[in-house]
Amino acid sequence: MKKQLTLLFFLLLIGFPGKSQENSGEIHKIPVFESPLEKQFFTQHLHEPFYLLQTLHSNPGLDLSRWDKLLKVLDKKEGRSRNNSQLLSDIFFKTHQHLLKRYEQHASFSNLLSSGTYDCVTGSATLGLLLDRYGIAYEVIETDYHVFLKGEFAGQDFIMESTFSEHGLIVGKDLVLEFEKKFKTKGGERKYDFNIGLGNNESLSAENQTYESIGLKELAGLQYYNDAILRFNQKNYGAAYAQLIKASFLYPSERISKLTKMMAELIGVRADSNELSFLINP
């Protein structure tokens, strides 16, 4: 596994040779990073979620004024309600007031910070960053087509469902259990619709087969996975594969690995064994 990750990280830096769909004998290079800033964030901030989440659609002139304002508001609130569930309400509702303005599937974290558009992945990531800031224990729950936060604070279980601005904060053991019922797995082989990314609220009523506890690094991977779905549906297969490679590095889950393999077969990606042998056999 260590050798595989080393090889994958090297491939991230150099790009991938692949076969052209129009001419199966023609080899072209698939760029992995869309900008030097994306490469910098991805390679230098793997353990700093706030920056890692900005890798997708990274913007050197990103306006963080609304984020900074939210932190100032919450820092003041935290001093008054540190030991009761009011702090959960402040975090959830003030975040929607200042940052989470419009739901839009496939919205990136950079878009969220600049314009307020968000989906369940980036909305959950934002709330997770804030819970980390105030030392509140939580986990990110990944389901087939949705993610949300689950935690415990001041003796109370809670759920933060970022896509429901008015009723997305659920506090109390019984209410949390009731919310989780619709996402509990049914068993059997997992079958994913790769035309649907996470955050498709129309798919929430389908039988769920995934219920995984993950973290913010994995959310950054799911953000790339969502963007890969978007590129795939636009028939931009090379770009979709590049996004999946980054998603796989951050979060090598079953769903991401399956789609990455499918895309590799579709576009005929291969690696030069001579060029990479020193990494495979150090």
Provide structural commentary:
This protein has two domains: 1-56 and 217-282, Methane Monooxygenase Hydroxylase, Chain G, domain 1; 63-214, Roll (C8orf32 fold). Helix 4 (65-80) packs antiparallel against helix 5 (86-98), helix 7 (120-133) packs antiparallel against helix 9 and helix 9 runs antiparallel to helix 10 (237-250). Strand 7 (156-160) and strand 8 (169-171) form a beta hairpin. It is of the alpha+beta class. It is globular, with a radius of gyration of 20 Å. 49% of the residues lie in helices and 12% in strands. The strands form three sheets. It has a five-stranded antiparallel β-sheet. It has a two-stranded antiparallel ribbon with strand order 1-2. It has a two-stranded parallel ribbon with strand order 3-4. It has helices spanning 2-14, 36-44, 49-52, 65-80, 86-98, 109-115, 120-133, 173-181, 216-233, 237-250, 254-267, 273-280; strands at 16-19, 27-30, 102-103, 117-118, 138-142, 147-153, 156-160, 169-171, 212-214. It comes from Rhodonellum psychrophilum GCM71 = DSM 17998. This is Protein SirB1 N-terminal domain-containing protein.
Topology:
Blueprint lengths: L1 H13 L1 E4 L7 E4 L5 H9 L4 H4 L12 H16 L5 H13 L3 E2 L5 H7 L1 E2 L1 H14 L4 E5 L4 E7 L2 E5 L8 E3 L1 H9 L30 E3 L1 H18 L3 H14 L3 H14 L5 H8 L2
Parallel strand pairs: 3-4
Antiparallel strand pairs: 1-2, 5-6, 5-9, 6-7, 7-8
Helix pairs in contact: 4-5, 7-9, 9-10, 10-11
Protein name: Protein SirB1 N-terminal domain-containing protein
Organism: Rhodonellum psychrophilum GCM71 = DSM 17998
